[in-house]
Design a protein that fits this description.
By secondary structure, this protein is an alpha+beta fold. The protein is 17% helix and 38% strand. It has helices at residues 2-22, 119-126; strands at residues 41-60, 77-91, 103-107, 133-145, 148-152, 155-160. Strands 1, 2, 3, 4, 5 and 6 form a six-stranded antiparallel sheet that branches. A hairpin with a 2-residue loop joins strand 4 (133-145) and strand 5 (148-152).
């Protein structure tokens, strides 16, 4: 019985390990887009694929929390807001990943681009109009660089939603 349980646990650990390794984002020691710096390694905490409706852009002002505010802090952010219509796929291999969401906010300012967020994704998101329906794939990673660890939630892909009958969502 113990051997059977051990085999199942090892099989599941191998399955989730393959899922994280197959992702182009979880690969440790990758080089950034400019080719001049190594990216940190990361652990996949949750993976989300959902049909979503783009509701518009919002701007969050600086909250004046540092001596650099508001001129040099770079705290103000522009977000693309998506309402999650329905989940198509969801995985949470451990206990610390994000739960299913009702809304997703994506920082679209290139100066604030997260380490793992691709420029092509920001272009696609910036081109959307309120009411557009898309299929979003995003993940929640726990990244490690030197002696620090931090969360990262990049959007991996954005594609027009296809409804029954072959029509794309607008």
């Amino acid at each position: 019985m113990k051997n059977c349980i051990l085999a199942v646990c090892l099989g599941l650990a191998g399955f989730w390990g393959v899922q994280a390794e197959d992702s182009s984002i979880a690969a440790p020691e990758r080089i950034n887009e400019q080719g001049d710096a190594k990216l940190p390694s990361g652990e996949l905490l949750s993976d989300h694929v959902a049909e979503a409706e783009f509701t518009g852009m919002i701007h969050r002002k600086c909250r004046f929390l540092t001596s650099l505010c508001p001129d040099k802090c770079d705290h103000a952010r522009d977000f693309a807001v998506f309402r999650i219509v329905k989940y198509l796929d969801y995985r949470k291999p451990g206990k610390y990943g994000d739960e299913k969401q009702e809304q997703l906010m994506v920082d679209v300012n290139p100066a604030h681009k997260p380490i793992l967020q691709g420029a092509d994704i920001l272009k696609k998101v910036s081109a959307l109009k309120p009411g557009d329906r898309v299929v979003l794939h995003w993940a929640h990673y726990y990244m490690h660089r030197d002696s620090s660890s931090f969360p990262e939630r990049p959007v991996i892909s954005v594609a027009p939603a296809v409804f029954s009958g072959g029509k794309t969502g607008k």
